[in-house]
Structure formats: C-alpha cells, structure tokens
C-alpha cells in the first residue's frame, strides 16, 4: 500500500502542471513592473573635465557625485602622518589615531562638497 501511494505521488509530480504563460503584453498595453522600469534609459555624457552626467525624465541634468571614499582614505593617511608629527611625546599613538580620524572626516567632506559643473 505504501509503495503504491509513493508511486502515485511520484507520477503526479512528474506530470506537467498547468502554469501561466510567461508572455509579454502587447506594445499598446500600459507598462507595469519590469517594463516600466526599463522604459526610460538615461543617456550618459562626459564633460571635458571627466564628470559623467545625464538628462533625467524631467529634462534636468544630473551628475554622478562621489561618495567621498577616496577623500576619506587620503585624508585619513595624511591626518595620521600629521598627527604623528605633532604628537612628539611618548608612544605617539594617540596623536596618530586622532589625526587619522580628523583627516578622514575632513577629506571625505572636501571630496563630497566638490560640485559637478
């Protein structure tokens, strides 16, 4: 009995199930989901100074701004060196750490504030 029930269950799983057709709607139908997201593809331009920008759906220009990672790293390294040079007593770890933190924050803000014009 057990074997016959398992055989019936296995046969039922191998039969094709009724699945909906995965077809695109007609071109005149309103776009929903993935098609709506892919409807507008911005065209990127590059200015003479190497900044990428694009025109949005509202005909305004937008540019890709940096998130400040490079400024953070460079500022942190420069700040660590400056803090180590300023703190001349003892182990100098405190000056290095404080200088790295201050330099990283300053470098990140400087890079993020650069406008793309």
TrEMBL record:
Keywords: Lipoprotein, Signal. GO terms for cellular component: cell outer membrane. Residues 71-111 form the Glycine zipper 2TM domain. Residues 1-23 form the signal peptide. InterPro entries: Gly_zipper_2TM_dom. It is a lipid-anchor. It is found in: Cell outer membrane. Pfam families: Rick_17kDa_Anti (PF05433). Belongs to the rickettsiale 17 kDa surface antigen family. This is 17 kDa surface antigen. It comes from Tsuneonella aeria. The lineage of its organism: Bacteria, Pseudomonadati, Pseudomonadota, Alphaproteobacteria, Sphingomonadales.
């Amino acid at each position: 009995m057990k074997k016959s029930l398992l055989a019936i269950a296995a046969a039922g799983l191998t039969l094709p199930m009724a699945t909906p057709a995965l077809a695109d709607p007609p071109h005149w139908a309103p776009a929903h989901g993935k098609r709506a997201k892919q409807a507008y593809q911005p065209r990127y331009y590059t200015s003479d100074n190497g900044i990428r920008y694009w025109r949005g759906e509202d005909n305004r220009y937008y540019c890709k701004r940096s998130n400040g990672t490079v400024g953070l790293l460079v500022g942190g390294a420069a700040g660590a060196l400056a803090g180590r040079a300023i703190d001349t007593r003892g182990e100098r770890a405190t000056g290095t750490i404080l200088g790295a933190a201050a330099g990283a924050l300053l470098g990140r803000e400087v890079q993020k504030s650069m406008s793309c014009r």
